Amino acid sequence: MNDRTALVTGANKGIGRHIAGGLVAEGFTVYVGSRDAARGRQAVEEIGGDARLLVLDVGDADSVAKAAARVDRLDVLVNNAGINPSLAPPTESHAEEFRRAYETNVVAVVEVTNAFLPALRRSPHPRIVNISSGTASLTWSTHPNPQFPPGRPGSAAYRSSKAALNALTLLYAQTLAEEGVKVNALAPGRRATDLVPGAMATGGDPAEAAAGAVRLALLPDDGPTGEFFS
Ligand code: NDP
What we know:
Structural class: alpha/beta
Number of strands: 7
Strand order of the largest sheet: 3-2-1-4-5-6-7
CATH class: Alpha Beta
Number of helices: 8
Bound molecules: NADPH dihydro-nicotinamide-adenine-dinucleotide phosphate
Radius of gyration: 17 Å
CATH architecture: 3-Layer(aba) Sandwich
CATH topology: Rossmann fold
């Protein structure tokens, strides 16, 4: 086993799988978080190197507790698992879509982070990277931006959940600053994945987004914390 260890949630496909591959290439032992064992095993085979399967459904408290019990020390936690249950604007959204988005994109991040904090505290340079979204930026949503024209306020549940994740990133960073735990958020950009219909055809390379997450995972001790990167 390599000296440094990382966990990427939702790493069986998409951006998460590329982040896991990038961290393996940097010499980490990487726990490939996957709620489905078979899909996770396939990703581990494709990633190769020191990738290991960690069955982890971030929305299931028992699954989170069992996974955390298997990891003694962790240098990097990447909260990547996320869903976008609806493209609807707020006026056409259902409460259930909001519950689902917040459960996975916000509540689960708290549950997973807190469960793995004891292992992170055993690392000399602990780093947490939260995969957020540019669509969550209130600044970008209210200023001219070709990606988010003001007339198209869709994905309300998803975007507001990621805005909450940005707030949490700051609060965790401030809470853990004195312990040397750096906590940052990454907006990966629109990428060709299964997250939203059509993105596979029009999104950019997910590997490029993953490289940004790997950079935040490798921040030096004098690097930033509590910030939102794109
Ligand atoms: P994908 O749909 O390709 O991957 C999402 C991953 O999250 C899958 O591995 C999925 O697992 C996993 N996941 C979802 N729910 C759970 C759960 N309860 N427990 C464990 N794993 C879960 O999407 P992306 O790769 O695009 O998304 C990765 C992150 O990037 C997300 O946080 C997303 O919001 C963010 N993002 C993506 C953008 C894009 O354009 N693609 C833009 C901005 C942000 P399973 O296969 O089992 O469903």
